[in-house]
Amino acid sequence: xxxxxxxxxxxxxxxxxxxxxxxxxxxxxxxxxxxxxxxxxxxxxxxxxxxxxxxxxxxxxxxxxxxxxxxxxxxxxxxxxxxxxxxxxxxxxxxxxxxxxxxxxxxxxxxxxxxxxxxxxxxxxxxxxxxxxxxxxxxxxxxxxxxxxxxxxxxxxxxxxxxxxxxxxxxxxxxxxxxxxxxxxxxxxxxxxxxxxxxxxxxxxxxxxxxxxxxxxxxxxxxxxxxxxxxxxxxxxxxxxxxxxxxxxxxxxxxxxxxxxxxxxxxxxxxxxxxxxxxxxxxxxxxxxxxxxxxxxxxxxxxxxxxxxxxxxxxxxxxxxxxxxxxxxxxxxxxxxxxxxxxxxxxxxxxxxxxxxxxxxxxxxxxxxxxxxxxxxxxxxxxxxxxxxxxxxxxxxxxxxxxxxxxxxxxxxxxxxxxxxxxxxxxxxxxxxxxxxxxxxxxxxxxxxxxxxxxxxxxxxxxxxxxxx
Length: 469
Description:
- The chain is mostly helical.
- Helix content is 42%, strand content 5%.
- The strands form four sheets. A four-stranded antiparallel β-sheet has the order 3-4-7-8. Strands 9-10-11 form a three-stranded antiparallel β-sheet.
- Strand 10 and strand 11 (425-426) form a beta hairpin.
- Helix 2 runs parallel beside helix 16, helix 3 (62-73) runs antiparallel to helix 6 (129-139) and helix 14 (379-391) packs antiparallel against helix 15.
- The radius of gyration is 20 Å and the shape is globular.
- Mean pLDDT is 92; it is low at 1-11, 445-449 and 452-469.
């Protein structure tokens, strides 16, 4: 068996060291069936983290990358939802809040199909999983086919997308809606400030913030916002995790979530073709979603996509990186692509001037370079922008962003996020998806047949770090 840390020559010394460091993070964070985002702050399995981690793990171990996705999908609810956390019973309850005894998925979630033998949260995260599954397959198609990987995950991924486009189409316009700020993944974005004002926070003494044991208060959500998060989660739990239009105090359509759903629908079309299914069904749904995305969330005056508040019925006038992520979507109208590229390089996001795109408009009233999702640059959103730039023919800009991300990952010890001006580390260190996406950016091979021009890994036999383990 090849060691996951074995590194062949020749390669640039800096990239070799970066590869070793990224591999070490993923080895350290591996639990035996999945990868925690970090050992301290996030000690369980997170949904979209696991998707991004699998994309990087394919460069180390294709089987481990498959296991990452299979373990997450093994906790799927019968209504199709993939929960945003799968809890490890080996982790003490006080290590993370909200803990399993808060969510009570196996009991409160029973009416919605929560598994009886696995404790999870009851909310979801962005659907990157089909894209990840397709990229993992392409890393070593022979091993994937011999193990029946895609047939095992296909039906679960279809059920997941059916849930998002069915019960979660709360606005009736064809897009998936999110019912908690944690669901779009950008938990503390200023986009949620307006909708959250309608929510009465939970009493401070009714919960304990475990996140402050591992992070600085100045980089984390405020107590007021956190209390509102707790209230929304408790109310959803007490409803039996029911998705009822008009019954949610917080309900938004997010452009990043729906862009990733579209890209994953295209990936499902590839998976269907590989497994003997009908790719046309998925391509048709991707086309409908793309049309709805532009119709419902495009703001010509802002030159980007905005979130829609389904309670108030209006677009939310806050400009976050979520509105640029749709660059990963194939087949956008050319005027939309041109405007997105102008906005990405303009004064709000300054892509090409600063190391990485911020999570929120530099000129926005709520911009903060250090506080969680209110300005810092994140590696997953910039990885998506890098793919989008390549998709629409901006290879030079994509190369520059890729180089900046690699530099920032190494200098920050694979930080959760970084200051967008200086790339100084913020949040926790040795963060799972930062290490994983670093490995992906380092991969030498590129292949356009992967639902995005950034391409998959090389075949396993060509990979430089123990890819066949």
